Amino acid sequence: MSKKNVCVVGLGYIGLPTAALLAANGYDVVGVDISPTVVATINEGKIHIVEPLLDQFVQKAVSSNKLRAFDSPQLSDIYMLCVPTPFHEGHGIPRPNIDFVLAATRSISALLKPGDMVILESTSPVGTTELVAKELVAAGVDTSSLSIAYCPERVLPGKIMIELVENDRIVGGLSPASTAVVAEFYRSFVRGEVMETDARTAEMCKLTENSFRDVNIAFANELSIIADRENIDVWRLIELANRHPRVSILQPGAGVGGHCIAVDPWFIVSRNPEEAQLIHRARLVNDGKTEWVIAKIREAALAFEGTFGRKPVIGCLGLAFKPDIDDLRESPAVAVADNLGQQEFAVICVEPNISSSTHFVLRDLESALVECDVVAILVKHSQFSDENMRNKISQKIALDFCGALI
After folding, report:
1. 323: which residues sit within 8 A by CB, 6+ positions away?
2. Mean pLDDT of the chain
3. Residue 1 has what pLDDT?
4. How many CB atoms lie within 10 A of CB 6?
5. Which residues have C-beta within 8 Å of that of residue 43, sequence separation ≥ 6?
6. Given the residues 82, 151, 206, 402, the one annotated as active site
7. Is 3 a catalytic residue?
8. How far apart (Å, rounded) are the C-alpha atoms in residues 170 and 131?
9. Is 311 annotated as catalytic?
10. Residue pair 5/68 in contact by the 8 Å Cβ criterion
């Protein structure tokens, strides 16, 4: 397709890599973010998140004037909505909050012209793409000539710049014509297969993928709790069980985090509470694993206090939701460290992928091992699996919840 102007609304973990990748493929891209700091950082050719290769893409895109950041949308031909979809606060089953999606939709409404594309990439409940169209109509936009579609990302933090290109993509439009037009756009920069469907199927597919993973992680987490009760090494157990040719059990952890696996299943459960029994239960198991981890650390801390007559210093190794990234969203490790601090334990944290925190006391790993009495390994960062560090950690009262010491 001929190169066009693209406006990416939301410059977070998906929006910024997407904007930078499009710029590298010859598109003139404007990125939009409500944070003045984010806008200024990007316009300096720098990045505000940790992601391999992203800094090189952004620096090159900005220096070539292919990527510019603004605090409001600019006139373009293609509009991509990459904004957060958090929860509504409250009790009971969490309900998805699409307020940012609708606000982003309104923000581009006055700029739209016949033939433009409007693409929703934010993970959303089924029916959200239709609501985007309704929001545009309510704003006075004639949507009859627009190509409106949903195309969810399927990337792994730490490999985003690779997987945005290599992974298959799903495009679901509000009409077959919209699907075809938007699919052609993605084929201009995606080497994976671009598969076409309708918007509702595409929305549900994204939720299904992460719910599948959540259910499988729940099995591993539940198994780890049972193994602990039976005094069985869960890591050896899984290793042996996985020698079966049709068994592939995942690795347990401190829970499930991130803005995908820990969130997306609730989008299905909240809309289908009676039908989504297994998906709901898996969410409860994985959240419960975090509570179990807290209880195990507290048990070790109280045992130390009973032996030595003082409260121990607890070291929480890792705060990110997965290894070797800086993303703390929905991280069970954050919940663990926060809860222990609220219980009046002295807690210090090691998170090598962030430089500062206003909430946690941060130390480098060497310093933390000097100060700590009890060490809880919550995230399998590569620094913690270094053989020399593993030996030092093992000399402490060490609780390994992620298999870093195996």
Report:
1. 158, 379, 380, 381, 382
2. 95
3. 60
4. 24
5. 62, 68, 69
6. 206
7. no
8. 19
9. no
10. no
Structure-block tokens of residue 355: 């430089």
Predicted TM-score (pTM) of this structure: 0.90
Decide: residue 149, CB within 10 A, 0-12 exposed, 13-18 middle, 19+ buried. buried
What per-residue string of b and e applies to 370-396 under the rule 16 or more CB within 10 Å gives b?
eebbbbbbbbbbebbbeeebbeebeeb
At 204, phi and psi to the nearest 5? -70, -30
**220 vs 343, residue with greater confidence:** 220
pLDDT band at 380 (very low <50, low <70, confident <90, very high): very high
> Could you identify the residue written with the tokens 């201009």?
188
CA distance 199 to 197: 7
In this structure, the number of other CB atoms found within 10 A of the CB of residue 363 comes to 17
Location of structure tokens 């290769």 = 53
Nearby residues of 108 by Cβ (< 8 Å), 6 or more positions away: 7, 9, 73, 79, 118
Could you identify the residue written with the tokens 């929703």? 120
pLDDT at 2: 66
Contact in structure between 86 and 230 (CB atoms under 8 Å): no
Mean pLDDT of 54-72: 98
Kindly name the residue from 7, 82, 151, 260 that is annotated as catalytic: 260
Residue closest to 341 by CA, chosen among 294, 289, 386: 294
